[in-house]
Specification:
By secondary structure, this protein is an alpha+beta fold. Helices cover 14% and strands 29% of the residues. It is built from one helix and seven strands, in the order E-E-E-E-E-E-E-H.
């Protein structure tokens, strides 16, 4: 399966923040595609005021989301590649840039 940074996928792995299948954003570098796991940030439709660690995404033709969602940058996690679906959408360059700002804040890099 070929995934790229910025792709939106469905995560089917069980974990503390992924008890049910949910959309997630691939944030791992493309050049690390040989790894068995993939770094993702889950999305939620339960919108809260948690900026700057939540990035609001409006549904659109590029991302194929059904509802307004927050990228939960504060829930960054590694999941097995086999627990991910094929990409169903992508974030725009501007949206991914906003996620990058939040990741730098979270990781102090």
């Amino acid at each position: 399966m070929s995934l790229r940074r910025g792709d939106l996928v469905t995560v089917a792995a069980k974990g503390p923040y992924t008890g049910k299948p949910r959309p997630a954003l691939v944030v791992q570098a493309d050049r690390l595609s040989q790894l068995a796991s993939v770094m993702v940030c889950p999305l939620t439709g339960e919108l809260i005021a948690a900026a700057p660690l939540r990035v609001r995404i409006e549904p659109g033709r590029l991302n194929n989301l059904r509802q307004v969602s927050d990228v939960m940058v504060d829930k960054l996690s590694a999941v097995p590649r086999e627990a991910l679906s094929e990409a169903f959408g992508r974030l725009s360059a501007a949206e991914l840039s906003s996620v990058d700002v939040a990741l730098r804040l979270l990781l102090e890099i």
